């Protein structure tokens, strides 16, 4: 694949490479079915609303009740085959960076779940840095990963 003068391409993870929102909805529906066998509809609604809030804020709380179906959610994440193939093709002529925001542990779990290793030359998780994209330091971190100066970020 010809680079056409493009040196690098930056990708986001959530709702760009993976259908995070779609996976969240499926996980919540599975939780509703499971909880519906044990609790009343009011309780099910409250629990699922808490789960939705957790997903919106991506707070990492392994012991909290809001993490009731993270396993199902992670299993649903996938980079679609044609997108994975495109990334593999692009990687031949371009530097590829995954630059994603969110709680570091949560984002790392997603990255592992979709098997990103080998697709990108570098991965920057905003939650591991003082500021997240689109803040200039986040772009500077990406530049450092590739050995560029701040000016080219």
Automatic annotation (TrEMBL):
Entry keyword set: Hydrolase, Magnesium
InterPro entries: HAD-like_hydrolase (IPR051400), HAD-like_sf (IPR036412), HAD_sf (IPR023214)
UniProt keyword annotation of Oxidoreductase present: no
GO BP field: N-acetylneuraminate biosynthetic process
The keyword Magnesium is assigned to this record: yes
Highest rank taxon of the organism: Eukaryota
SUPFAM superfamilies for this protein: HAD-like (SSF56784)
Gene Ontology terms for molecular function: N-acylneuraminate-9-phosphatase activity
Xref: PANTHER family: N-ACYLNEURAMINATE-9-PHOSPHATASE
The name this protein goes by in its record: Uncharacterized protein
Organism per entry: Aldrovandia affinis
Lineage: Eukaryota, Metazoa, Chordata, Craniata, Vertebrata
């Amino acid at each position: 694949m010809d680079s056409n003068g493009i040196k690098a391409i930056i990708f986001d993870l959530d709702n760009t490479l993976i259908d995070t929102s779609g996976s969240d909805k499926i996980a919540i529906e599975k939780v509703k079915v499971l909880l519906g066998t044990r609790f009343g509809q009011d309780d099910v609604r409250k629990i699922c609303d808490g789960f939705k809030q957790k997903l919106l804020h991506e707070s990492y709380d392994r012991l909290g009740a809001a993490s009731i179906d993270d396993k199902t959610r992670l299993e649903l994440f996938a980079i679609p085959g044609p997108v994975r193939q495109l990334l593999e093709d692009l990687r031949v002529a371009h530097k590829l960076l995954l630059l994603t925001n969110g709680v570091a542990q949560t984002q790392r779990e997603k990255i592992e779940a979709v098997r990103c290793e080998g697709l990108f030359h570098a991965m920057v998780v905003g939650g591991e840095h003082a500021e997240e994209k689109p803040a200039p330091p986040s772009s500077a971190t990406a530049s450092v990963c590739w050995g560029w100066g701040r000016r080219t970020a």
